[in-house]
């Protein structure tokens, strides 16, 4: 698929922008801070409903404006579709596909697929586990948009379970007493009722959590060969990249998972349940849920060493790039169409060999959008059509 047109209204630094695009390679060149990343970030947001730079929507709306609009014409297998999103910080966002207004913005997912590689991706290797969980979950959604709903359900149940753990901490602690406002209910009864409610949440969380865990494991299983190959190509055979899953379920099942096996979902559900029983006193003590996909991590390994804390800066970059290129290849195979590949400001960080190899790996993608502050950093093979971005003006360089 490719973007034929991108229009922005009050998005970041742009009061208005209209950019006509084509398949193949397009490069946006301009000095720092002129709005290059803003353009490609908008495309990424339309595809994933999240920004690679910020967790909140407010910075996406131009300072002083109330809402931002991203509209794109997406072409897939020769058919065009208009995809539109209104970003309303503090209120619900609104989405449209063609003429149809969608009930939920997340129903827009899948209409445009992008894989975006940016300097922020270094955090995939060097950052917290939450970065790697986000990578997996976003890829899950890019592959099958229905996972956005399951992910949201999981977060909701988790929040409710944490609230219960917090609010009932003194009651749930065996033998602990606290002065009760409602003295009509004896302490033992209140405790039994809190425990019963906790069991109900355990069942819900184990059910939704195990399906998310299972989906992540299947995804990782499918992604791994592409990762090994992409890293090998980017680094010209210098090192073997691997990713394994570290699960918070009890050790017996966790070690099976770490070894790369994918247990049945029913077994994962049972394992989550059993682990809740094992860690109950710790959870009650701390008032948070200690088991589930929200506590897991993806362990990245270069040869025999963990990437985090050991890999050099260049190796970490290559690893992050390997993960994104693997995601691209997986989606290409799965969807039968290429996602739009975005390379935001990445060439300045790579040595000449890596630049050339990256260019060779992506030049056959249906559409590649590249941003660079220095045009010479972009390998010749990827220069393609060039747009100059100057103070929010996007103008195409004459051919
Ligand atoms: N919500 C907003 N309202 C107005 N301006 C904004 C907003 N968010 C970001 N900007 C401005 O957008 C500019 C940054 O744009 P962008 O990140 O696209 O730059 P860039 O061309 O990619 O630069 P670099 O080469 O440094 O990465 C900054 O000047 C910033 O102040």
From TrEMBL:
Residues 2-375 form the RecF/RecN/SMC N-terminal domain. Residues 172-191 are annotated as: Disordered. One of its GO terms (biological process) is DNA replication. ATP binds at residues 30-37. Its main location: cytoplasm. GO terms for molecular function: ATP binding; single-stranded DNA binding. Residues 180-191 have a biased composition (Basic and acidic residues). The keyword Transferase does not apply. One of its GO terms (cellular component) is cytoplasm. It is found in: Cytoplasm. InterPro entries: DNA-binding_RecF (IPR001238), DNA-binding_RecF_CS (IPR018078), P-loop_NTPase (IPR027417), RecF/RecN/SMC_N (IPR003395), RecF_2 (IPR042174). Keywords: ATP-binding, Cytoplasm, DNA damage, DNA repair, DNA replication, DNA-binding, Nucleotide-binding, SOS response. HAMAP family: RecF. The RecF protein is involved in DNA metabolism; it is required for DNA replication and normal SOS inducibility. RecF binds preferentially to single-stranded, linear DNA. It also seems to bind ATP. Belongs to the RecF family. This is DNA replication and repair protein RecF. The gene is recF.
